[in-house]
Amino acid sequence: MTNNTRIQAIDAQTLKQWLDDHAVTLVDVRESAEHATERIPGAKLHPLSQFDPQQLRSVEGKSLVLYCQSGNRSTQAAQKCVAAGFDSVIHLHGGISTWKSAGYGVEKSQNAPISLFRQVQIVAGSLVFLGTVLGVLVSPNFLLLSGFVGPGLVFAGITNTCAMGLLLAKLPYNQRSGNKL
Questions:
Q1: Is 68 noted as a catalytic residue in this protein?
Q2: Given 27, 68, 78, 82, the catalytic residue
Q3: Residue pLDDT, tens place only, 27-74
Q4: What is the 3 state secondary structure string of the chain?
Q5: Which end of the chain has less Cβ packing within 10 Å, N or C?
């Protein structure tokens, strides 16, 4: 059996039914700021950046379901679980986006920081603007700053990873969140 056959993807309707039946332990593998911004009710936080499958052993007895924003990180977390010896792992196909698209509610924290995605947009846009202005007013060498951000965003889009997002997630105000495993 390969790792891919040991990882099962479920849809939002199945997850909703399992949650209603109290038959599942739901784990959010997004970063703390994302979890604080919005989460599926009852989800426990276990960020992929600190992911240790052995910590999930304590939730045996119920089906373990992982989810993230789009299904990419939950797939990575599921692969880590399989590599650590889990017989099979379940994740929400399409992540919280499909949950919301199905019309199911999310919990939000009152004091949550703005979303990580918006933080990346603000920082990247600011760096491009600053590089351009300084390139025109001070030295053309500052245009390299704008030229560096653009390919970084392309790489993030192609690979569905974001180094800037990972760095921003480590800032103290993005680390606030309860509800961890």
A1: yes
A2: 68
A3: 999 988 888 889 999 999 999 988 999 888 655 568 899 999 989 899
A4: CCCHHHEEEECHHHHHHHHHCCCEEEEECCCHHHHHHCECCCCEECCHHHCCHHHHHHHCCCEEEEECCCCHHHHHHHHHHHHCCCCCEEEECCHHHHHHHCCCCCECCCCCCCCHHHHHHHHHHHHHHHHHHHHHHCCHHHHHHHHHHHHHHHHHHHHCCCHHHHHHHCCHHHHCCCCEC
A5: N
